Amino acid sequence: NETITKMQKRLKKHLDRERYEHTLGVMYTAGALAMRYGSDLEQALTAGLLHDCAKCIPGEKKIRMCDKYHLHVSEVELANPSLLHARLGAFLAAKRYHVDDKTVINAIACHTTGRPEMTLLDKIIYIADYIEPGRQELPNMAVVRRLAFEDIDECLYRILKDSLVYLNSRGIPIDPMTEKTYLYYKKYLG
Ligand code: DGI
Ligand code: FE
Ligand code: FE
Ligand code: FE
């Protein structure tokens, strides 16, 4: 696919080697999940490829860029600018990579915190980000990887829950959207 190859070349210059390899892992894992669940393959590959396109921008610069482009920065994001890479990445996917598909943009925007009522593509990217083969082993990884291809909602809920446990255990401040997403899915799946 020529468009994806072009995006890949540009993206490579904006990421370090490790992040670029993670990105390719997410792209192919998202592709596999799209095949499993009958989601559009091109959308999954594009969102997977670009989901972390803003990840390697230094924190201060992330904040300056959000100010410049009028993207809202919350208190928690100001204190933890890494959180901004999702929404800033979504913006840059449109601006620098010329993605005009809102489904793809939204999946990039919510890939770190999730959101209530996630679309199939949102779930695919959120999960692919967590389970891609290069991701260092996380608790319950084997179960989560199997669940991803068995029951996408159960898998999503499991990741949301494990992530909150991890953040709380390390005393990392929870973004309100992370909490909101967890509570939303707990109601249906918990
Ligand atoms: O960008 P990746 O590392 O591939 O993955 P990601 O975008 O899912 O980001 C994961 C990181 O984000 C991880 O170090 C934990 C952090 N994170 C996720 N939810 C929250 C959070 N950090 C804070 N402060 N608050 C959250 O709610
Ligand atoms: Fe990310
Ligand atoms: Fe994630
Ligand atoms: Fe990622």
UniProtKB/TrEMBL annotation:
It holds the Pfam family HD. Residues 19-134 form the HD domain. The keyword Metal-binding applies. Keywords: Hydrolase, Iron, Metal-binding, Nucleotide-binding. SMART domains: HDc (SM00471). Its EC number is 3.6.1.41. Gene3D superfamilies: Hypothetical protein af1432. It comes from the Bacteria. PANTHER family: BIS(5'-NUCLEOSYL)-TETRAPHOSPHATASE, SYMMETRICAL, SLR1885 PROTEIN. This is bis(5'-nucleosyl)-tetraphosphatase (symmetrical).
